[in-house]
């Protein structure tokens, strides 16, 4: 018999929803034409592409022409930063502000821009994993061309004061990008209300397909294309559109948006039970913000315990979650996010992240708590 498992790693990726799978199916074998083809089937593909874009624009409160489909969150992040840097270069502004807890799609792109002569300020979040608008204000200079702050963090789930940071940037005439890959589908996003100039999201983090995402860029922003070729996405992203993926993205996002209130209520109940249970474990300490956070993300360090050993015991027990370390160049490095919060390497390396979704149950949460408690006890012996 195949081993039973509990999936609590939804911040890494999610299972596709029935809604998204059903929406995609017709575009795999029926309406499979290239959306650029002028024939009848191509017109049907173009119509589906048009309505997916329109639906997403409505949900995000922007114009359809401000959306650019990409291969995922990483590509959207790369294109946002590279485009803003190109605009900055034209204006003689070469300073970018971001945070030390961003995803590597942001951090590594910033490293590349630094090599090209940009000055990068990486702000450290407060102990609760939140960067304040006051920190951004203090870092802004006349040279600043871009501020990029993630909407919610992938390890702690901490939600950033995006609306406030956006308002500040708008007032100072600086472009504002947010990596909303963790937040999209889980918290309500409105690019107008939140004063966002550019935003990245990715379908596979909200029960859509992998390999498709989007970049929102206000119509006043001239994007730099990373992929040269045909004129798709108004010349800003060449390559035949991933129509099944785009349709799946739109369906998953609409579903997530429509079900957000009941989903949040359900996941929050599970999350609160998980927090309460893990807090009973001696030496457990909470990482992140208890109030300003995604409903499903839970991160704890377990003092004196090796996170990798813990992870592997849990893996043997059929529990899928993540640790506070990442494999980089063949060695285990403590998470840069937890270090940025001020944790010691040891505490960062003893961390576990659980990320829940609506497919999880209270029984599973109870099993997770029991297995973690057993594993921690075992490792401390
Ligand atoms: C997953 C993730 C990404 C990368 O998205 P992909 O679609 O996997 O490329 C970027 N930023 C954050 C915060 C993420 O969680």
In short:
The protein has two domains: 133 residues, Aspartate Aminotransferase, domain 1 (Alpha-Beta Complex); 241 residues, Aspartate Aminotransferase, domain 2 (3-Layer(aba) Sandwich), CATH 3.40.640.10. Helix content is 41%, strand content 16%.
Protein architecture, described:
The chain has 381 residues and is α/β, with parallel strands linked by helices. The protein folds into two domains: 6-16 and 259-380, Aspartate Aminotransferase, domain 1 (Alpha-Beta Complex), CATH 3.90.1150.10; 18-258, Type I PLP-dependent aspartate aminotransferase-like (Major domain) (Aspartate Aminotransferase, domain 2), CATH 3.40.640. The chain is built from 13 helices and 15 strands. β13 and β14 form a beta hairpin. The model has no long low-confidence stretch (mean pLDDT 96). Bound molecules: pyridoxal-5'-phosphate (PLP). Residues 72-74, 77, 103, 105, 150, 154, 179, 181-182, 202, 204-205, 213 line the site of pyridoxal-5'-phosphate (PLP).
Terminus-to-terminus distance: 32 Å
Q: Helix segment count?
A: 13
Can you tell me the overall shape?
globular
Ranges with pLDDT <50 over ≥5 residues? none
What percent of residues are in strands? 15-25%
Overall structural class, as computed from helix and strand content, comes to: alpha/beta
Q: Using only CA atoms, what is the Rg?
A: 21 Å
Largest sheet, order of strands side by side? 2-8-7-6-5-3-4
Q: List the ions, cofactors and other small molecules found in this model.
A: pyridoxal-5'-phosphate
Q: What's the total number of strands?
A: 15
Number of domains: 2
- Tell me, rounded to a whole number, the average pLDDT: 96
The CATH superfamily of the largest domain bears the name Type I PLP-dependent aspartate aminotransferase-like (Major domain)
The major beta sheet can be summarized as: 7 strands, mixed
Return the CATH class of the largest domain.
Alpha Beta
CATH fold node name of the largest domain: Aspartate Aminotransferase, domain 2
């Amino acid at each position: 018999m195949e081993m039973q498992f509990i999936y609590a790693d939804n911040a890494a990726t999610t299972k596709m929803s029935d809604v998204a799978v059903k929406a995609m199916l017709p575009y795999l074998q029926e309406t499979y034409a290239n959306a650029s083809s002028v024939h009848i089937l191509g017109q049907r593909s173009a119509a589906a592409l048009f309505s997916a874009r329109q639906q997403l624009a409505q949900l995000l409160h922007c114009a359809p022409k401000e959306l650019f489909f990409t291969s995922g969150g990483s590509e959207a992040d790369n294109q946002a930063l590279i485009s803003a840097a190109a605009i900055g270069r034209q204006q003689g502004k070469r300073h970018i502000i971001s945070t030390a807890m961003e995803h590597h799609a942001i951090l590594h792109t910033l490293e590349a821009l630094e090599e090209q002569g940009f000055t990068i300020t990486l702000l450290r979040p407060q102990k609760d994993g939140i960067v304040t608008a006051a920190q951004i204000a203090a870092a802004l200079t006349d040279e600043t061309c871009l501020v990029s702050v993630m909407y919610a963090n992938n390890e702690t789930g901490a939600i950033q004061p995006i609306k406030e940071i956006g308002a500040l940037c708008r007032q100072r005439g600086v472009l504002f990008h947010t990596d909303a890959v963790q937040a999209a589908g889980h918290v309500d996003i409105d690019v107008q209300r939140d004063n966002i100039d550019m935003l990245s999201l990715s379908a596979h983090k909200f029960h859509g397909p992998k390999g498709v995402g989007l970049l929102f860029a206000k119509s006043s922003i001239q994007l730099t294309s990373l992929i040269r070729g045909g004129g798709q996405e108004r010349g800003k992203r060449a390559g035949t559109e991933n129509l099944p993926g785009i349709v799946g993205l739109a369906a998953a996002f609409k579903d997530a948006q429509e079900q957000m209130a009941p989903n949040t209520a359900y996941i929050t109940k599970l999350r609160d039970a998980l927090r309460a249970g893990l807090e009973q474990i001696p030496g457990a300490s909470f990482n992140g913000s208890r109030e300003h956070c995604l409903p499903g993300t839970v991160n704890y360090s377990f003092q004196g315990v090796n996170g990798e050993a813990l992870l592997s015991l849990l893996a043997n027990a059929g529990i899928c979650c993540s640790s506070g370390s990442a494999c980089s160049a063949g060695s285990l490095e403590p998470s840069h996010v937890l270090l940025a919060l001020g944790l010691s390497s040891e505490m960062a390396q003893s961390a576990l992240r659980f990320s829940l979704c609506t497919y999880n149950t209270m029984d599973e949460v109870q099993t997770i708590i029991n297995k973690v408690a057993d594993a921690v006890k075992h490792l401390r012996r």
